[in-house]
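Anyone have tokens for Lytic polysaccharide monooxygenase? Sequence:
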Amino acid sequence: MNQATPETQLRHGRVTSPASRGSVAIEQGLLGGWQVNEMEGGKNFPALAAGPFPAPFGTDNPSVVPPADGYILSGGKDDARDCVNFTDEEMSKKLGRPFTWPLLNVTPGQTLDIKWEYTAPHTTRGYRWLITKDGWDPKTRITRAQLEAQPFFEDFYPQVPYYSHAGELKAKVNHSVKLPANKKGRHVIVLMWIVANTGNAFYQAFDVDFK
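Reply: yep, here.
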């Protein structure tokens, strides 16, 4: 019996609008869509350790180990997907030509509309949004120290335990977030799709320019 190759196992999901770093990597020929669909890592980020998901959702499956610093944007993946963690300089070396991550023009406090495409819409706890600190350094990879300590937005389903509400805890194809009102210039946003019945979240990253 032939086993499916990874290329044919289109699982999980990714943001299709606006363009994420994963989308850009696909456009540059560095990744396939299936790889961007599988940028999953421990869901307790920015915590460092595996363990129970925080209250009031402690009945959700515990988190596996969250991504290490420098590998956050790929959900901890250090294979070909590592390219989404690259700085402009690293990407320029990889592509053999000058490269800067394209910036999405946004305004402070605006609502950003997100569209997902799911190939396996898991039982969903919710979505968490993080952003880089003022004065972060684009010439280094994203670490916990580069990110604000607290998420700027979370959108969690309140129903517990998840296994009694699986039909209600649906992944959202379209959702919106209000961006921070106090940011200027270039920043990186990290979006986590947090799954209730596994130890993982799926990570998507966006480069933005607050005008």
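Residues 13-210 form a domain with the Coagulation Factor XIII; Chain A, domain 1 fold (CATH 2.70.50.50).
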